[in-house]
Fold these 2 entries.
Entry 1:
Amino acid sequence: MVLTTSIALPVSSAESDERSTATAAPSLLSRGIYSLYVQYHPRGSMTCDNVPRACRASGSPGPDCCRKQCVNMMTDNQNCGQCGKKCQFGQACCGGSCVDVMYDPKNCGGCNKRCKKGSFCQYGMCSYA
């Protein structure tokens, strides 16, 4: 058995105005919360596939657009040189190419870290022995 009670409290004129405007616009509220998102966040739907210039703005992760995200295809291991090209384990994206930074004397331990002439790259270090 459930017992419910209700209490009637006096309502001020400001509260009654708020209630009357909320009931006066049921069409706006009946569309759901997602209809309000575009109204309050006009840039929420702006992605780089719609506006490619967005990736060139200051603070952007990179100048290229891949799958609606701004990336730098010269350094991104998930999009190296082209969208979706992933570098394997132990490789890094250097200048848009996947290179083995553990054994490449031109990129030993990282991009553009050259070993001295005559030395070799092993385990990401020049002339490791």
Entry 2:
Amino acid sequence: MLMLNIFMIIMMISNIMMLLSIIISKKTYSDREKCSPFECGFDPKSSARIPFSLHFFLITVIFLIFDVEIALIFPIIPLFKMVNFFFWTKISFFFILILLIGLYHEWNQNMLNWTN
């Protein structure tokens, strides 16, 4: 019975706090543009079926891939002091070789050309 009373008190306090926040809130009117989701560069009132250039998507994916790979290169630098130089050189060369093969593949597929 005590748990039920505590639960009821907690529920009443939380409901009172929500009601007070709604009453005290500064937002008194609802603007259509403020309530709509924001998409950078797109008019939120137009049709959602506007053709989207796939090239923007590809550039974004390429950026994310190389950004993550650069973040993976940073731990290699302090590793230079802890491991054998030959082992460090082999790992660094292998990692940069993978980056260069990916860059060559993207260049070969004309993904880096902005205009075709």
